[in-house]
């Protein structure tokens, strides 16, 4: 009860500050829309897709996962600014739940991601993308879990390194192979065997496959529950680890 | 109100390949009484902030323990948090929030309900004369205003003790004097105030009792007056015509309250006494009795810097 209240308190505060600066909506949507408009048209011939809509069914889920990964991984920067302002230290001397300090922030990131995802899905509808609502909601759940994990990890790392200069290269180094090995931009079915072998070890590749299956309306596919389970477990681990960073000493 | 026993903390720092252990705090025993302003004085790097952060539950001690407002620091840090307020050194407000938002949020982090939090915020804004700026963003505030918001944050839940880490550092003299008044007001409201400072005059003017810390250890503890008396007593400078010096020496040497008597280079006498305030009338009477005319009389009291010098062998200003 106290935990839920504490989480809600932090979530409210973070959301309020985010809404005060609505530029993020534009920035967060601009890039994916560019992909949608300028990159996706290449896909129909490249993927040998029968229709443009079929190409979008492959590309849009990948794009959304990409957004979830990157959106989350770079949230740590905001936390470093808060650390510097003393806001985190001030929170840590109150009896507020340490898990709530993390979760309130990460849930804000999840909600803002879902808002972006909805905008992009609506735009894709204009390009003849069609998805069942139930499948779409499950796909959003997958995205939420990914964003929860990446933002929690980003906050945890930010508390450890405490400087933007260290966080930026670190996150980029992690994000790039993760991106390339997840088949986000092009499905890994095109990849040679060894590359697919490595990608099998990349949890995000499972998440992308699961999300694609959902967009394809293939709810019964094993990939759906596999992707959801893997991301759920990783999100739980990420949150647990990052909450411990909040509880530990922060100088 | 606060009692610590052998509080210790060391940090490991890495310089190149070598790992060095720095003993930041090496066994601090402190007692702070209810309702006093307790000053923690020492140069930068003496271990003041580390001690304070341990008492505020922000870092865990390596050894020793402490009882704070009746709660055990090691066993029940959550209860300690409920009973204390803490105002960090480097600020604690967010640029894009307003003072009112910060106050309400902070109160609610202590589990206070929304309506009550809003009432408390309004009262605090009023008490710290911030109502006028309450709904402006913190980034528009002056240094003094911002510091007042931070103090208000530290006491929004009416703690028994409030820890202030260098509350006046970086403030202009006027804001500083203003801040002293605010701190005295906290004491008047029944709070115990624990402040760190590296300003001697601040410790002297503001604190009921002080502890001097150097190199992670307490080197002295007491009221400012006690500490100064303990060190060297007072010096009374007696200004007198050169021709009368010899007679005056004869008159005063051997008086029971004079510990030591020197002829000053500039003429006149230096009397080392325990308590200048009671010595001066006696000196005056004695000289008058001997029919000697006095040009001036001056009382020189040892400063806390003298205390620091005696205890550590160097001046606080140099360190």
UniProtKB/TrEMBL annotation, chain A:
The chain crosses the membrane at residues 21-43, 63-85, 106-127, 139-158, 178-195, 224-243. PANTHER family: TRANSPORT PERMEASE PROTEIN, TRANSPORT PERMEASE YVFS-RELATED. InterPro entries: ABC2_TM, ABC2_TM_bact-type, ABC_2_transport, T7SS_ABC-Transporter. It comes from Micromonospora arborensis. Coiled coil: none annotated. Residues 23-249 form the ABC transmembrane type-2 domain. Keywords: Antibiotic resistance, Cell membrane, Membrane, Transmembrane, Transmembrane helix, Transport. It is found in: Cell membrane; Membrane. One of its GO terms (molecular function) is ABC-type transporter activity. One of its GO terms (biological process) is response to antibiotic. This is Transport permease protein. Belongs to the ABC-2 integral membrane protein family.
Automatic annotation (TrEMBL), chain B:
Residues 2-240 form the ABC transporter domain. One of its GO terms (molecular function) is ATP hydrolysis activity. Its main location: membrane. Belongs to the ABC transporter superfamily. Drug exporter-1 (DrugE1) (TC 3.A.1.105) family. Keywords: ATP-binding, Membrane, Nucleotide-binding, Transmembrane, Transmembrane helix, Transport. Gene3D superfamilies: P-loop containing nucleotide triphosphate hydrolases (3.40.50.300). It is found in: Cell membrane; Membrane. This is ABC transporter. GO terms for cellular component: plasma membrane. It is a peripheral membrane protein; Multi-pass membrane protein. InterPro entries: AAA+_ATPase, ABC_transporter-like_ATP-bd, ABC_transporter-like_CS, DrrA, DrrA1/2-like_C, P-loop_NTPase. One of its GO terms (biological process) is doxorubicin transport. Pfam families: ABC_tran (PF00005), DrrA1-3_C (PF13732). It comes from the Bacteria.
